[in-house]
Every structure is written in C-alpha cells, then in structure tokens.
Amino acid sequence: MSLLHTPFRVSNNLHFRDSRTYSNLLCWLTGSLIKLVYFSRYDDSCRDDDELRSQNESLGSKSDNSRPVLGGKLHFAKFETSKINDCLEFIHSMKLHLGGGGAYKFADLFKEKLSVSLDKEDEMECLVTGANFLLKAVHQEAFTYLDGQKEFAQIDPNDLYPYLLVNIGSGVSMIKVDGDGKFERVSGTSLGGGTFWGLGRLLTKCKNFDELLELSHQGNNRVIDMLVGDIYGGTDYAKIGLSATTIASSFGKAISDNKELVDYKPEDISRSLLRMISNNIGQISYLNALRFGLKRIFFAGFFIRGHAYTMDTISVAVNFWSKGEAEAMFLRHEGFLGALGAFMSYEKQCLDGLTVNKIPQRFPISVSSAGNKIYCSMNGKSNGNESIECTVYGT
Ligand SMILES: Nc1ncnc2c1ncn2[C@@H]1O[C@H](COP(=O)(O)OP(=O)(O)OP(=O)(O)O)[C@@H](O)[C@H]1O
Ligand SMILES: CC(C)(CO)[C@@H](O)C(=O)NCCC(=O)O
C-alpha cells in the first residue's frame, strides 16, 4: 500500500459535558479524494440531555440515565487530493484539528498547518466496518437502481451476511463480507474510477471529473462502440443470446473508422468509456458473487457519484450475467465507507464503552456493533455533503 493510499485518522481529545461543541475528525486520504467525517454536538442551549434521552426512549431506544449524553451530527465532506490546502483550511476554520496522533504522507503538512499528527488504519478493514455500520444502522442506505427506478432496500440487520462489497475508487476492491470484522478481499481490478477519469481526461481534455460525467449524459456510445448488430448486419445473434444492441467491442469502431480523435465528440467518448468501465466492473463483480454463492452485491466508492447511467449500467451487467439471480445495490454514502469505518474503529479503541445512538425519526433500527447499540438517521441529500443525526452516550 503506497503512502498515498493510506487512510489516516486525525483524532482530537474527547470532551464530555465540559465542552459545548464536541468534534471528532476522521480524515481519509487515499487516491483521488480526501474524505472527512466529523462529529459535532448540538449546542447545549438547543437541546438538553434529558430532551435527547426522552426523544430516544419515545422512539424505542433504551438509554441509561446515569450516562452522559451528547446529541449531534456526523458530517461528511470531500476534497480533491490536489486541493489539500482547501481541506486543511476547512479543518482549521471548523476547529476540527485540536489534539491528534500518528503520521504519514501528508503528515508534515498536517503537522505544520494544524499541529496534529496522523494515525494509520487498515483500508479494507475500515471499508468493511463502514459498510456494516451503514447497512445496519442507517435507514434507507441501500437501494437498487434499474431502468431509472430507484428503490430503497429493506435490509434486515440480522440477515445481512454474507455479501459482496465492491468498492470502486481509483482501483476496485471486491470483498466478501461474512460478519463484523470477518471478511476476505477476494478480487479486484485496476480498471476503476481512476481509469475512467484518467483516460477520459486524456481523450476529452475535460478539466474535472464532474465535467466528464456530465458529458456522458449527452453522448451516444454507439458512435464508438462496435455493437453485435454492426458485425451481424443489424441483426441479433440470438443463438448465443446476444441482441443487436449489445456491445461487441468497446471502442471497437475506432479501429475501422477512418477517423482521428478530433473527429469524435467528447460526449460520445465519455459515454463509451463510462459504459466500458461500469460494464466490466459489473461483470467481474457478478462472477465473484457467483464464485462464492453471494446473492447481494453492494457497490460503493466515489466513482459512482449517484450517477444514473453508471448505476444503470452496473445493474444491467449484474442482471444480465446472473440471468436475474443477483442484484446490484448502491449506498447513499458510497464514498465514505473507509472514513466512517475509521471513525468507528476510533470509537472502539479510544471511547471504551461509548454508545452512539440513533435518533430514529420513523424507522428505528437497532444494531449491535462491538457490543454497543447504534441508532442513526439521515439528513440531507444522498452522496453529497450531508449529516447523520446521532446521540452519544458516554460511560
Ligand atoms: N471530484 C472528483 N475528483 C476526482 N475523482 C472523482 C471526483 N468525484 C468522483 N471521482 C471518481 O472517484 C474516484 C475515486 O474514488 P474514491 O475516492 O472512492 O477512491 P480512492 O480512495 O481515490 O481510490 P482507492 O480506493 O483505489 O484508493 C476517481 O478515480 C474518480 O473516478
Ligand atoms: C490498491 C487499492 C486497494 C488502494 O485503494 C485499490 O486501488 C485497488 O483495489 N486496486 C485494484 C488492484 C487489483 O486488485 O488489481
């Protein structure tokens, strides 16, 4: 694991009752994006402990009157790694940096600008911890997406395992998850989000990822991809189950056309590229699910960005190859699994006996993590900068 791909944790000292705003920052520095997860407590004047405790109890979660309680929110934010200074400025302006421990790639910068050091965490372990936490504790976290239809999945926390977690970051990791802390990275591919963004940047001259993604909306992949119909005179190859519109060869038309790069529209290139990467990931994921008899596949990572065409392509690939047997699911907090997992592991190590409690607004879900009860509810829009409302019980 290169230092650039090392997840870090910036942790401050924890204060209960004696500070009005309590914040605990998790900073996840990997390939392309820096993810931040931090907890901020409500202003004491807005909600008091009794109010939070009774709110939780009225919604079905038990609390212990003898333990201090903090109400607040888990916040999510991301920055491009190249904009590390914006990130540092943000951490500084939000005063998230007080305290800390550890060190690596950006260690000197963090030390110099914020006077904090960084701890190293295991990437796969954090991804799995984050995924398990979200799937068990957060209402409407997982959803299916097919033919433009988004449907939230009802996940029974007692019937979650086993599943395949596919994290699509710069590269792709496929992890078979069997329980809390029980997992195996069974496969991966280097053709991931970095490939889409890297090749896309070179081929279209797009200046940022969002622009490239936006272009793909308007493109037509048939201009560049060679379809079965292009090979079989416009007809299906029904005997082997291929329709005329199936892609026979991604970018295949570029070899036969007497065209140069400038003759292709950037939007068509972007569309073909997105389809190629998404299809390939969907197919490899399904094959791995098949290998281990896994019915559920959860796709995460910032490559997805809640983008309709990406999700649709992955879903179609899983559906096609599994003949409808397996299902692709996506996560609202797709890009924050590692950061959240590191946050959870921080709790395990440093906040012995601490309980994070959800303020369940309508659908309380109780989940046991490291012996603690966790309850969570969501605010804000999916996959952007949003927050999860929490109450925290100290020992
Ligand atoms: N604003 C953005 N800037 C750059 N890439 C973005 C952006 N938004 C989404 N992406 C996509 O997200 C990918 C990175 O995803 P993510 O942050 O989950 O993984 P990573 O941590 O960089 O990579 P890995 O997991 O391989 O270490 C990029 O390769 C790109 O495809
Ligand atoms: C190397 C990591 C784990 C770093 O996040 C990721 O980029 C990845 O899973 N890449 C794919 C490597 C492979 O299995 O071919």
Automatic annotation (TrEMBL):
SUPFAM superfamilies per the UniProt record, alphabetical: Actin-like ATPase domain (SSF53067)
PANTHER family: PANTOTHENATE KINASE, PANTOTHENATE KINASE 1
Coiled-coil intervals, chain numbering: none
GO biological process: coenzyme A biosynthetic process
Catalysed reactions, semicolon-separated: (R)-pantothenate + ATP = (R)-4'-phosphopantothenate + ADP + H(+)
One Gene Ontology MF term: pantothenate kinase activity
The protein, known as: pantothenate kinase
GO cellular component: cytosol; nucleus
InterPro entries: ATPase_NBD, Type_II_PanK
Pfam families: Fumble (PF03630)
Keywords in alphabetical order: ATP-binding, Coenzyme A biosynthesis, Kinase, Nucleotide-binding, Transferase
Species of the source: Gossypium klotzschianum
Pathway: Cofactor biosynthesis; coenzyme A biosynthesis; CoA from (R)-pantothenate: step 1/5
EC number(s) on file: 2.7.1.33
